[in-house]
């Protein structure tokens, strides 16, 4: 239920003030879910839903900066999504390209593309690479845009990279099996060198990860929000961060 505007603003400010700075997640992953259902609910086209979702991203990054988050990973398109009909996929890819260009153009955030970029059309891949290049020196919030991303494929790519490197060095299969360790995967993930996500948020009421950051989220806290992504508000984000801060993190211990 949405509160009347004056009360909503007061509640939002109190919620922001209640956050303990030492219990803010360093890395937040967000599954931007519900664009199509939002569009159907309002009698709009699917493309309109995706565009409204894209328009929400800069707000999320503003909110993240405000509370002290250092890394945000946005799941914008999965490998499964690439099988959608061309009449939906092509406009969606164009929206993603424009959204990433707009984020890069602000000069505020460092953009990194994570995913199987080889599966994407040349135009989309070029837009992602250009956003990375133009923001490589930015020292602000690090923003991973997961496009053509699948968690199982990421792990397979990491194992494949390990095998190729050691095969090129002449290692035998027995030597590879003896030496192989979990760190060999972690060092070859798309997000290598970054902290694992402390908090993963999924919108639209779905309570599953669907393969998002499958390896990295082993010790993450999860927050599932009922709002469709285009309707996700700052107060929803602050509630997620507060819920994270209220939890006792065991980290597998």
TrEMBL record:
Mg(2+) binds at residues 33, 221. InterPro entries: UPP_synth-like, UPP_synth-like_sf. Substrate binds at residues 34-38, 50, 78-80, 84, 202. Signal peptide: none annotated. One of its GO terms (molecular function) is magnesium ion binding. Keywords: Magnesium, Metal-binding, Transferase. Its cofactor is Mg(2+). The active site is at residues 33, 81. Gene3D superfamilies: Decaprenyl diphosphate synthase-like (3.40.1180.10). One of its GO terms (cellular component) is plasma membrane. One of its GO terms (biological process) is polyprenol biosynthetic process. Its EC number is 2.5.1.-. Binds 2 magnesium ions per subunit. Catalyzes the condensation of isopentenyl diphosphate (IPP) with allylic pyrophosphates generating different type of terpenoids. Belongs to the UPP synthase family. Z-FPP synthase subfamily. Homodimer. This is Isoprenyl transferase. The gene is uppS.
């Amino acid at each position: 239920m949405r509160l009347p505007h004056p009360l909503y603003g007061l509640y939002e400010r109190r919620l922001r003030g209640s956050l303990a700075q030492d219990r803010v997640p360093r890395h937040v992953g967000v599954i931007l879910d519900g664009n199509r259902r939002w569009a159907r609910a309002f009698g709009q086209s699917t493309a309109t839903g995706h565009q409204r979702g894209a328009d929400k991203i800069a707000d999320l990054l503003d909110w993240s900066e405000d509370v002290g988050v250092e890394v945000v990973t946005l799941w914008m398109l999965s490998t499964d999504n690439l099988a959608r009909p061309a009449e939906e996929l092509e406009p969606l890819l164009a929206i993603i390209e424009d959204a990433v260009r707009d984020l890069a153009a602000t000069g505020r955030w460092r953009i990194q593309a994570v995913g199987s970029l080889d599966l994407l059309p040349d135009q989309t891949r070029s837009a992602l690479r250009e956003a990375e290049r133009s923001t490589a020196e930015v020292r602000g919030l690090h923003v991973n845009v997961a496009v053509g991303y699948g968690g199982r494929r990421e792990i397979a790519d990491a194992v494949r990279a390990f095998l190729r490197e050691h095969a090129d060095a002449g290692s035998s299969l027995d030597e590879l099996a003896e030496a192989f360790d979990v760190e060999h995967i972690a060092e070859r993930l798309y997000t290598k060198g970054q902290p694992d996500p402390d908090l993963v948020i999924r919108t639209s009421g779905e309570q599953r990860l669907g393969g998002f950051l499958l390896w990295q989220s082993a010790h993450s806290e999860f927050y599932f929000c009922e709002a469709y992504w285009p309707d996700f508000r700052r107060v929803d984000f602050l509630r997620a961060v507060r819920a994270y801060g209220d939890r006792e993190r065991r980290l597998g211990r």
